[in-house]
Amino acid sequence: MLRILAILALIMTLPGVEPIPVITGSTVVHDLAVRIGGERFSISCLLRPGVDPHAYQPVPDDIRRLTAARMVILNGMGFEGWFDGLAKEAAFAGTVVQASAGIEPVMTAGCTDHSHDHTHDHQASVPDPHPYNSMRQGVRYAENIRDALIAAAPDAAEAVRTRAEALIAELRRTDAWATAELASIPKARRVIIANHGALAYFARDYGFQVLAPNGAFEDSEPSAKQLAELIALIRNQGVRGVFLEYAKNPRLVEQLAAEAGVKVAATLYLDGLGPAGSPAESYQGMFRSNVAAILAALR
Ligand SMILES: [Zn+2]
Questions:
Q1: Domain range annotation of the chain
Q2: pLDDT of residue 223
Q3: How far apart are CA 174 and CA 113, in angstroms?
Q4: How far is the CA of 7 from the centre of ligand 1 (A)?
Q5: What's the mean per-residue pLDDT of the chain?
Q6: In CATH, what number does 2-171 get?
Q7: Which among 195, 213, 190 has a CA at the least distance from the CA of 268?
Q8: pTM across the whole model
Q9: Distance 150 CA to ligand 1 centre (A)
């Protein structure tokens, strides 16, 4: 009996026997997990490009998919605010991994001026849950995903580690490219205004000031006073970087640009990948596309 069990255990851990079902909670995490995991895993994402990850409403099929999964890899930091409810409904008992684990949170706020001391009643500072918008933080995501996949399938450790190493080397090269290119933008022009506070890590890592009238989760509306402050700032400081975001309501940014008399710059992909066939169809493509849009608008 013991021998049969031992043989069974061996068969169950053999590569290619039965891919381990893994669910991802964001398109960025999904792209990294697929690149690192290979065929030992069957990885599927709950979200599609163009779906707002903060406002996502799980559908009944998500419960079925979650029930069948052994592991879930989330972005974490509250990015998938809907997940806990879904996990409860699915009675999910597998492993939940946060790809952003270990990243020191950077606060974001919708304020136009971070030095003032009065508090906005509706836009308290919260940790920006989008570290991946800095490629330097994306490396940490890849490392965490690598470790989670190895823990789930120790038999695939070597292959997973090899793929992760190659990917991390690519991510580091992309980060070096972005650092060098973005450094060519004059300091006074390094101000970006986008819908929601998704660029705090990008701002810190590449030396920008980012203003986000709608807060970290796009769940707050700026007051008339804040809008007036923003418009004055755009006019007085000659801010060029008023950006639209993919899959977000353009109304506020268009209004800001129109009232300040500036053009709206190219679209940024801040909440996840763009559709297949777009330059942002992969994580690195999305980041490169954002850097290119910022360079085109500000340099
Ligand atoms: Zn977001």
A1: 2-171, 183-298
A2: 87
A3: 31
A4: 47
A5: 90
A6: 3.40.50.1980
A7: 195
A8: 0.89
A9: 29
